Amino acid sequence: MHRDIQLQEWSAVCALDDIVPDTGVCALFKGRQVAVFRVGAERLFAIDNYDPHSQAAVLSRGLVGSIGERVVVASPIYKQHFDLASGECLESAAHSVASYPVRLENGTVWVAL
Q: Beta-strand (E) ranges in the chain?
């Protein structure tokens, strides 16, 4: 769950056009890898890039899709699904990852940690 946005530090990731729709990119913030996803034209999400199942930093390379109303990414290794809004692992909530606030400003994608 997101912490109070007022207390977080926002960092620019890249231009929106640098992220192909329905894919993710990885950004490094203060030693932490964050997977930033663009869904459709301008919907943005950010979660930890680290997959707790495979113990590898690969979530940004997963397949983006949906399960019911939830927008998810499937890990490219063991295929667990992570909710992009909350970071919840749908197969095992104990293996959920953190999610982060993300915004679009003047064509630039920003993430808060």
A: 10-15, 23-29, 32-39, 43-48, 50-51, 56-57, 63-67, 70-74, 81-83, 99-100, 102-105, 108-112
Count, residues in the chain: 113
The letter for the amino acid at 5 is I
Report residue 62 as tokens.
Answer: 């997963």
Which tokens in the block code for residue 36?
A: 């930033």
Nearest to residue 25, comparing CAs of 85, 73, 91, 71?
A: 73
Render pLDDT for 37-93 as a digit per residue (tens, 0 to 9). 999 999 999 999 999 999 999 999 999 999 999 999 999 999 999 999 999 999 999
- CA–CA separation, 43 vs 49, rounded Å? 18
pTM for the structure as a whole: 0.91
Are 88 and 59 contacting, i.e. CB atoms less than 8 angstroms apart?
A: no
